[in-house]
Amino acid sequence: MYNEADEISNKSFVQFCNTYSNLLIEQDSSFSEFSLILMQETPILIAHGFAEIISSGQHMKLRKVIQAFQKYIGSHMYSTSVTEVFKRFLELHFSRSYGHDKTPDLNKKYVCDAIKILFRQYLTDLTKPISENVTQTNAKDWKNIYNSQIPGYIQMLPCYNSNNENLIKLQSLFYTNWLTNDFKEDIKQVLPLLSKPSLSLEIMASENNTKTIEILIDKCPQAVLKYSIDYLKSTSEWKHATSLLEKKSKSDIDNQSKYHEVLHDMLEYLSHNMCVEDLCSVLPEDSSTDIGHDEYQTYVITCQKINQANQIKSMVMATGQQLLASLNFK
């Protein structure tokens, strides 16, 4: 019996798996009895063993290991130990073998299937009792396990610092560039099964910018500006955001100051990054008939000054270039 807390034994076990990989999977791509016993007794270590076999570049390929798991699980639907080993193995393989500069070969169906299986397993595990998702292990070990580009606004959500291991790992996998849009449908199917869905899950399942903005304004206003700057492109989208913020500041009396602050920060940003015409078009509805309204006049004036300063700067640069071009240094 191996002690999983014993580092020396762990390394010896993994090396054993690597050396005698032929004892783990039969010629017909099915697990040996010996392999199944190891999965029952030392599931985490055998997952590390399979991952080491693949990463070492031996004759046993990723496809064969995946086929063995799929073959066994397909005929043993309630084999939780083997399912857990499969999940751990895929997790180890995809988190260690790929990163910012290297991605899986998504042209291979078995690779795509494996990613889909891993993603759906995370979702399935989220439907289990909270106690089974919360972990006491060091969150730094799996905070962004797949080295994905997790958006800045996601990192501002309360759930980002959750100790729900499956949620955080799913989040990391979702923001790789390995997934297709149909994964959103998987999330939508799981959301009704959760007693308290995570905000990040709701956002991952969101159809478009408009819906995401509505969710953030309602549930996490502090992330609205960051999301808007990164993702909103059209004036109509900005208009929708400012109008919602103003309505929310009037309807949610308890959080009125919070929404006023977010709206102020958004208009301050836009006044520095839009032309006057566009800024006027995205001001909240109540101001559209009276641009001179004191509440918004400040932003319009700021925008005008910045636009004028930029025009003067452009003129000075153009004049300077013309002058340099006319000089004869001979």
UniProtKB/TrEMBL annotation:
InterPro entries the record matches: HPS3 (IPR017216), HPS3_C (IPR029438)
Assigned GO CC terms: cytoplasm
Domain (BLOC-2 complex member HPS3 C-terminal) ranges: 160-289
Identification of the protein by name: BLOC-2 complex member HPS3 C-terminal domain-containing protein
Naturally occurring in which organism (per UniProt): Schizaphis graminum
